[in-house]
Specification:
Blueprint: H1 2-10, E1 13-18, E2 22-27, E3 31-37, E4 40-43, E5 49-52, H2 54-57, E6 67-70, E7 73-74, E8 77-78, H3 81-96, E9 109-114, H4 120-132, E10 138-142, H5 143-150, E11 161-166, E12 171-177, E13 180-187, H6 191-206, E14 208-209, H7 212-222, E15 233-240, E16 246-252, H8 253-259, H9 261-276, H10 280-289, E17 291-294, H11 303-311, E18 315-317, H12 324-334, H13 336-347
Parallel strand pairs: 1-9, 9-10, 11-17, 17-18
Antiparallel strand pairs: 1-2, 2-3, 4-5, 4-6, 7-8, 11-12, 12-13, 14-15, 15-16
Length: 348
């Protein structure tokens, strides 16, 4: 109770979108101050952290044997608690530098966005890692709720709003009404699965091994979920699996779209399944309001048109969908003292 009273004046309020592919950090009063890949480079054997974020990502596939560049998050949850702790410590310390000195006296209050389908064990892992990383009070918010708030959906109204947050490791689908999630699905398919699908296609079709970064570049450059007016092409560099030598080939947007069919179909199926289980009154609201897309996967060309075709509902891509969840945590942080006051009143 004393910490809650003092933290209002002497602690930094930090919101974290702890994503599989990227981590975004919001500092109350400053906005989003960090957007870094969820990658940590460590020394093999000692586990000494050498780099975090963008610097570590540049090491992926390029490090000598004594250095490992790893992703401590998988499918939206912690895969390596120790490395996640070090990553969180780095982000929290960096974030506190953006706060006034008077706000650095106490450990920061941290709000972390997590997948809606997260288990109790995974929740404990997130809280423990954040606490050991230097957080004071720790609160969690479901990613689809944070994303819906971040894109400006009227979540508090007694009417249905639908958000589809396509992240790196998971896709979160939710129907929200009265500040609560009425129906939701969390599936382990996202941008990473799309990269894997492209990598596998390159092996099958061309006997070409490409790295994770090249697969991601292909997805961003010419990836699509729906036929486009122009069938773009791209030169791809990798290693020939037969000769073992470097090789360059040219691929088309059409074949990349075919390679992405399986993960995209999984996302479409999860949206349809959520709609099928949605109460009819809220489903009727969605006919006019439609579906809002957030997360990095929302930037895949044609994903909105495909979902419109499959559901019959209007589909919109949020402005700057990559920052939707982080912005949502920031908006919630603005009201965190009001929430504490309400809780305190209820306990009396």
């Amino acid at each position: 109770m004393l910490y809650q009273k003092l933290s209002k004046f002497f602690a930094t309020d930090i919101g974290i979108d702890l994503g599989t592919a990227n981590c975004l950090v919001f500092v109350k009063g400053r906005g989003i101050v960090l957007s870094e890949p969820s990658v940590v480079a460590i020394a093999d054997g000692t586990k000494e952290v050498l780099a975090v974020g963008g610097e570590a990502k540049r090491m992926l596939g390029r490090t000598p044997g004594n250095i490992k560049a790893i992703r401590p998050m998988a499918d939206g949850v912690i895969a390596d608690p120790e490395i996640t702790e070090e990553m969180l410590r780095f982000f929290i310390q960096r974030a506190r530098q953006y706060a006034p000195r008077s706000r650095r006296i106490l450990s920061p209050r941290v709000l972390i966005a997590v997948p809606s389908g997260i288990t109790g064990v995974a929740v404990r892992a997130v809280k423990d890692s954040a606490q050991r990383a230097g957080a004071g009070e720790i609160c969690l918010i479901e990613e689809p709720m944070a994303a819906a708030i971040g894109v400006g959906l009227p979540v508090a109204e007694p009417s249905g709003s639908m958000i589809v947050d396509i992240g790196g490791g998971t896709t979160e689908v939710a129907v929200i009404s009265f500040s609560g999630i009425v129906e939701s699905r969390s599936v382990g398919v996202g941008g990473d699965e799309m990269d894997v699908a492209i990598t596998q296609h390159m092996k099958r079709a061309y006997n070409l091994m490409v790295g994770d970064r090249m697969a991601e570049d292909i997805k961003i450059e010419i990836g699509s979920a729906y036929p486009q007016d122009e069938n773009k092409t791209m030169e791809v560099k990798g290693r020939d699996l037969v000769s073992g030598l470097p090789k360059t080939i040219k691929i088309t947007e059409k074949e990349v779209r075919a390679a992405l069919q399986e993960p995209i179909t999984s996302i479409v199926d999860s949206v349809r399944a959520t709609l099928e289980r949605c109460p009819p009154e809220l489903a009727a609201d969605l006919i006019d309001r439609g579906i809002m897309l957030a997360g990095g996967g929302a930037l895949l060309r044609g994903i909105d048109k495909l979902l419109t075709e499959e559901t019959g509902l209007p589909v919109f891509v949020a402005d700057d969908p990559l920052q939707a969840v982080a912005r949502g945590t920031g908006i919630v942080l603005e009201e965190i003292d009001v929430v504490h006051k309400a809780r305190s009143s209820a306990l009396r």
